Every structure is written in structure tokens, then in C-alpha cells.
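#lab-general

N.A. 3:47 PM
ok so I finally got the sequence cleaned up, no stray characters, all 82 residues accounted for. can someone with queue access submit it? mine expired

B.Y. 3:52 PM
send it over

N.A. 3:53 PM
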Amino acid sequence: MNSQGLHARPCHSIVSAARGFSSELTIRSGTREVNGKSILELMTLNAAKGVELEVRACGGDAVGLMDALEELFRGGFGELES
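B.Y. 4:20 PM
back already:
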């Protein structure tokens, strides 16, 4: 993840990518699970750098959704430190 964790910009990137798919998306941090297509819910996770997230997609295009999210996460949402 990027150096600042899951703040507004990465949350927006996740939601923007997820809304292009019909599958449901849930993201869990600890005991809290939220709708991955809601920026407000994602931001309530307060996931700092290093926090482990569980990402699940369910639906006909779930594999494509997970592939898109994997690319976002691996790329640090365009905010990786040099």
C-alpha cells in the first residue's frame, strides 16, 4: 500500500474501479466489514499503512473486479514512494 494508508484518494480509486463491475465488493479490516463501492464506508476503516485488508468480490465478473483491484493495490494507487 502507499505510505499514507487507505485515505480519500485510494478509497476513490477503489470505488471508481469497483463501480465498473456488477459484482458486490466487501472489504474487511479487523472486525469491521464495509461495502467496497461506498467511499464513505471505506474511509471508516481508517486503514493505516501496514494494516491487512481482506477483499472479497461476489458475482459474475468478480474475477475481473479482483484483477482490477490487485493492479490498484500493487501500484500503490499511484502513490508509491520512490
